[in-house]
């Protein structure tokens, strides 16, 4: 799907829509799922990146991304855009490996992680809500969201909406679901373990 939509975009066949965006960005979601399911294998194979130089390498890659983005700002070359986004995915993978392998815990980021599911399902409509409010308030032409003066406040707005929905909906729903699960578990009769098996395990 990823290569199909890029080929079509290169030939100016489709107009950009939620369908083409799904085809394009789905590959990054698939990479994340594969990384999650095979974390130990990836960590074993990527040991070269888990040295003390990792942060320096990541910093260099970051500035490479900035340089490509700056160069590509006017030309909007599709190939450079794809390269940059795969570099971002690669750097994210290395940083995740590095932080998890050293058990580095960032408390405020863990706090955001608790509402990550709500953020995942609400951020897209929230972006359109933010842009609509911006348009109604300023009476300007609909804004380009990748403008940093709009993008950064929009990220904070998405976090605020996700936090409100997490507190009002997901957190309470999860509480009742956990309560129902515990009640169901208490109703299930527990089969006693035969003494012969206990003695056998001790031997």
Give the SSE layout:
Elements: H1 2-10, H2 18-37, H3 39-45, H4 54-75, H5 78-101, H6 107-114, H7 116-138, H8 148-187, H9 195-202
Distance between the first and last residues' Cα: 57 Å
Counting DSSP E segments of at least 2 residues, the number of strands comes to 0
How is the main sheet built?
A: none
Write the H/E string, N to C: HHHHHHHHH
| Binned strand content | under 5%
Given the C-alpha coordinates, what overall shape results?
Answer: globular
Tally of helical runs: 9
Q: How would you state the average pLDDT, rounded? A: 79
Which spans of ≥5 residues are poorly predicted at pLDDT below 50? none
The secondary-structure class comes to mainly alpha
- Radius of gyration using CA atoms only: 23 Å
What fraction, in percent, of the residue positions are helical?
over 70%
Explain this structure to me?
- The mean pLDDT is 79.
- The chain is 79% helix and 0% strand.
- The longest helix is centred in the last third of the chain and has 40 residues, at 148-187.
- Helix 1 packs antiparallel against helix 2 (18-37), helix 4 packs antiparallel against helix 5 and helix 7 (116-138) packs antiparallel against helix 8.
- It has 203 residues and is mostly helical.
């Amino acid at each position: 799907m990823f290569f199909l939509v890029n080929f079509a975009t290169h030939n100016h066949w489709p107009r950009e829509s939620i369908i083409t965006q799904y085809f394009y960005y789905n590959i990054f979601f698939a990479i994340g799922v594969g990384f999650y399911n095979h974390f130990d294998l990836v960590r074993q194979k990527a040991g070269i990146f888990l040295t003390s130089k990792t942060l320096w390498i990541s910093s260099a890659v970051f500035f490479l991304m900035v340089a490509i983005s700056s160069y590509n700002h006017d030309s909007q070359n599709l190939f450079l855009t794809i390269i940059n986004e795969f570099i971002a995915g690669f750097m994210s993978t290395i940083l995740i490996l590095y932080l998890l392998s050293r058990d580095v815990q960032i408390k405020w980021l863990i706090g955001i992680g608790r509402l990550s599911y709500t953020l995942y399902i609400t951020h897209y409509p929230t972006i359109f809500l933010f842009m609509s409010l911006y348009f109604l308030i300023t009476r300007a032409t609909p804004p380009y969201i990748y403008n940093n003066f709009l993008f950064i406040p929009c990220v904070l707005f998405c976090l605020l909406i996700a936090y409100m929905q997490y507190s009002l909906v997901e957190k309470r729903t999860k509480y009742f679901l956990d309560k129902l699960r515990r009640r169901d578990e208490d109703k299930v009769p527990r089969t006693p373990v035969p003494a012969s098996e206990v003695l056998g395990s001790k031997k």
